[in-house]
Amino acid sequence: MAILDTDRNSNGELHMTAERSIKFKQMKTKNNVLLIAVVLALLSMACASKKATASPEQLAKLQEMVDSNAFRLDARWANPLATQTVNAIAVSGLLPLGSNPNRIDIFGMASYIEFKNDSVFGILPYYGERQFTRKYPPTDAGIQFEGVPRDFEIAFDEKKRQYNFNFDIESDTGEGFTVNGILFGNMNTTFYVNSTDRLSIAYSGSIKDPIDRE
Questions:
Q1: Does residue 7 belong to any structural domain of this protein?
Q2: In a domain? residue 5
Q3: Does residue 74 form part of some domain?
């Protein structure tokens, strides 16, 4: 498994239930300090992605995908917060070859977010620490969500020639996610996931056609 988790809730079920009532925006405010590292990683990836110039064909293809709301973000790298837990796993030699605590190779793993019609499907490996207890299936501890997102926004930045997007969504287990990201004209992408239950994580990869689910 590619999941690294530590449980930080020692106050029992009553405490956990109270935390579940916190809204997404309140959770983001509480974790602002931790998010700084994720944002810096995202900006670093964004700068690297913008170095490749987009062709007119790529820009036209991306616009077509966005207009039809049919595209998939294939994550190639995971960028977790370099916490003590992640660093300890790296020192133990358990990360994939060519990885480090800030940049983990997730090639070959199920790792994507797909937009199709009014729905979003997401499955991503997770490296980091949980903040609150929640029951997860033993073989299903990564990030997963499916359904119609709340507050979905996607807008084209004329100056930078890129799309910025964000949305909120909840998993079947009740975990809430806020996803923010960038779609570059050269068909690369960077995005980060903020959770109500665990520390934030960023991903980078490429933009593809959606999976045929028929």
A1: no
A2: no
A3: yes
Note whether residue 132 is domain-resident.
Answer: yes
Question: Angle CA(91)–CA(96)–CA(98) in degrees, nearest 5?
Answer: 85
In this predicted structure, the answer to whether residue 51 has a pLDDT above a threshold of 80 is no
Range of the domain at 83: 12-208
Task: Give Cα 68 distance to the centre of its chain.
Answer: 22
Please give the tally of structural domains in the chain.
Answer: 1
**pLDDT tens per residue across span 2-34:** 444 444 444 443 333 334 444 444 444 445 444
Name the DSSP letter for residue 214. -
Neighbouring CB atoms inside 10 A of 28's CB total 14
Ramachandran sector of residue 45 (left: φ over 0; alpha: ψ -120 to 50; beta: rest): alpha
Task: For residue range 99-122, list pLDDT tens digits in order.
Answer: 999 999 999 999 999 999 999 999
Q: Provide the CATH number for the domain around residue 25.
A: 2.40.128.410
**Residue 26 DSSP SS3:** helix
Tokens at 31, concatenated: 């974790």
Which token pair is 68? 């039809």
Tell me phi and psi for residue 139, to 5 degrees. -105, 15
Give the contacts of 161 (CB within 8 A, at least 6 positions apart): 54, 59, 185
